[in-house]
Amino acid sequence: MLSVLIGLAVLGLAALTTGATATTLKPDTASPASGQALTALNPDVQLSALSCASTGNCAAVGTYDDAIGDSQGILVSEAGGIWKPSVQAQAPVGASSDPFKAADGGSIADVACPGAGSCVAVGRYTDSVGIDHALAITESGGRWERGLKLQLPANAIRAVKPKTGATQDLNLDNVACGSVGNCVAIGNYETNAEVWEGLIVTEARGRWTRGIEAPLPAGAPIEGQNAFLLYADCVGATGCTLAGDYVDASGHQQALLIRGAGASWVAAPDPAAPSDANVDPNIEPTGVSCTDALDCVAVGTYVNPLENSLGLAFIESHGDWEAATGVTLPSGAAPATTVGDQTAVLSSVSCPQTGDCTAVGWYFDNDENGQGLLVSEQHGVWQPGAQAALPANAVGGLEKQSAGLDWVSCASVGNCLATGEYTDLGYDSQGLLLSESGGVWQTALESPLPAHASRQQTAATDQSDCTAAGDCAVIGEFNATHGRLLGYTISETNGSFGRPAAVSLPGATSAELKLSLDAILSPYGRDSALAGIRKARGFRFSYVAPVAGTATVQWYATQAGKPVLAGSGSVSVPAAGGTTLEVKLTAAGVQLLTGVKRLRISVSAGFTPRDRKLGDQHTTSTFTLR
After folding, report:
1. What predicted TM-score, i.e. pTM, was given to this entire model?
2. Looking at domain 44-213, which CATH architecture does it have?
């Protein structure tokens, strides 16, 4: 059950000053800031990553919009097979009130759980003056700690003044852990030479060290560099492998493959692109999976001379990266031999055993339908790709299917779960659950959705993590009946999927409660004029409470130099949501409003939450009835 279903929007709060400073408002000509009730917001829950330490012990992370429309981090933990209520991520001290705003590049991007109740989430947040920072948040003993600002390399460009709008001076996108307290977070950053370099930040024995610049292959240029680290995998204490891309001396985008640990990292010499690649192969890795420190597989995309984007795989054997292999697409695929007819993507890879891996993605068929793509490595040899079998209610032929597989997790050879989305006969997007059992891929299932899902959907299953054959966790997103985008989890146990559950939203904070009171600081709308209030002997506010509790309001006017109670009202709300709060004029208030053309009112509003830990909230202001 969602703990908060309705958010609150306050438009132009600068027009309304709360607290010690009073502002005169004219309800019949007021700006929308002071003349509208708070309205429901789209929570816009975006679960970005999932990781499981063992069966029934997982964590999922992402972002959501809080009750006043600010973007916050969301952290959800599963312990003993039970998903606990989510919590709001605590950004480091000095963070903005809107620390994970997507337009500013903010996000909690990834999570890794090396132990039950022991996880690390990473991302990027914005501070109170608009400067971006790298972030790590640690879960220890099942409890999420306050986020830590990670230190960039010494040659990082320094912000000399506050920034406005979207900022792009660093990214921290992926994290992998060899053991509890020993992790690596990767991304990229802008140097003081105004080029982009790969970023590596390591945690050793629970302590994060200053980030370092990722090494590049010999001969890589500094001027015009645009290096990214995108994916990491660590195997125990033996080291980690990082995959990304960089610009070579010819200005071409090549794969960047790095191995190491701590402060010691080495870039592999350029592994060759597939034989049919363009002169500039524009390689972009999309995943990496390792069985030990010297045996890994990286997948991604490249471009051929006809401007077709195609899938590829690199194999590292005993520490040496082999030339990339282009994926052979299924029969019926659109040709890659004519300009721009094909776009094939490998989006994820999982290797339960050296030489035996599974990669997934999507491609275009001859009818211009997007189809799910399955590719297997068997005993070190990549097999031709296969088309994923979609549910019976999938559109086909010339009806334009838009299926794709975004993620795969394999607990053992031949036992995997792939997730993604497809288009059903109602032209809605639905989540896919595609299982491989004993080496045989089954027909995909449409992912069930929580009970309050809308009939119109843009649903998807985003990631899976399998800890044993037939035992997997899945995260996804769906549209609820009120139209909002929410996250959900579903578990597979012994090969059967259970009931999906919507991710609860964190409870409201004290700041959200305080700002919710701005809706009842002055009357608004057609009934807010003095004559209307005098006739009705009061005023009805539409009020949206972020949590259960009681809202109160009192109006005071001055008579003979003394404050007089002119009206009051209160409403008790049993749960988060909208209600009506009616202010009724007192006898003194009726008398004060009779025969006058204007009356100055001082208003006091308060909210007492049912959850006493949040504390009472109170605010004051003034307005003028005309």
Report:
1. 0.81
2. 6 Propeller (2.120)
